[in-house]
Amino acid sequence: MMMIDTSDLTKTYNGRGGCRGITLQVPEGCIFGLLGPNGAGKSTFVKMLAGLHRPDSGRATILGQPLGKPEARRRLGYLPELFRFQDWLTPEEVLRFHGQLGGLRPRETRASAFRSRVRDILELVGLSEAADRRVGGFSKGMQQRLGLAAALLLDPELVILDEPASALDPVGRYEIRRLLKRLRDKGVTIFLNTHLLEDVEELCDEAAFLYEGELLASGPLHKLLSDSGPGDSAANWRFKLGGWLTDTWSELNAIVDGALFSTLRLVEADESGNALLTAHVTDREQAGYLSSLFIWSGLTLYESGPESNSLEAWFLQMAGSRQGGAK
Ligand code: ADP
């Protein structure tokens, strides 16, 4: 079953902005990333899915049910982009309130089973230590963790997260990524609205790209990247190297003699001997030849791969092609 299935879904604000004609499928059990620059229409799209905006036109189901059906809403967890909890509440009180919004009776949210669920979920998002503190003193990152706890509270089958890591530091992001992977392993489908490309690169099985309200591409991430990438033909290749010394550059250039690999480019080198090189290669064999050349020269090869296959390059290419086309 498709967990999210939309056809020609449109919502504008008095005919402007929003998103238009979005046809998108999210399969069960995957992490799906919705990408796009600010103002692309990502939040508008997820607000329709969460039942906060009524579409102008088009059709959509979530969990096999038309938008807004209470049966689907109960199986859906949603973390909005901008939210603020009441300052005077504790995390437990916030979650009790969310339990009631999700259909639990007040009596059920005071029962020991629910309280133990609250403790578990606070532990899961890394807020155990702050369980008795008032939300008013929480940092943005802590608020975001609590928002995630609220979205996950009732064991949803589908979780829609609008920028879940935007206020988190690198450690927090790492923890949330790990948590999302664990959820996927348990069979939960996750729809992630984000502009953090490294999150998408590491987490997502599938992705879609929105630009100025329109869907430009969607599908399995590896396919999107390989469709836009160089495949086996000419490409810019990246090499991450170790053991770099000041005179390595001139020695390398002497070896390649500036002819065959005339586009060898040193992107950066730091004091600990790490360096990043790019080279224009005509095929994979030439990249392999360069790799062995680096190793033969005494360098350590940490990583090598086609440059334009990175998500960032894809993102820029998608946005650039659209801008170019609009001119
Ligand atoms: P994203 O989440 O990708 O940043 P949004 O869905 O928030 O994009 O916004 C898409 C477009 O719709 C933007 O041009 C934005 O200005 C416009 N927009 C969003 N919300 C509103 C609103 N409540 N009223 C008017 N315009 C809006």
Task: Describe the overall structure.
The chain has about 325 residues and is α/β, with parallel strands linked by helices. The protein is built from twelve helices and 14 strands. The protein has helices at about 40-50, 70-75, 90-100, 105-110, 110-125, 140-150, 170-185, 195-205, 220-230, 250-255, 285-295, 310-325, and strands at about 1-15, 15-25, 30-35, 55-60, 65, 75-80, 160, 190-195, 205-210, 215-220, 235-240, 265-270, 275-280, 300-305. A six-stranded mixed beta sheet has the order 6-7-8-3-9-10, with helices on both faces. A hairpin with a 2-residue loop joins strand 1 (about 1-15) and strand 2. Helix 3 crosses helix 5. It starts with a strand and ends with a helix. About 35% of the residues are buried. The mean pLDDT is about 85. Bound molecules: adenosine-5'-diphosphate. Adenosine-5'-diphosphate (ADP) binds near residues 38, 40 and 44. Adenosine-5'-diphosphate binds near residues 17, 18, 42 and 44.
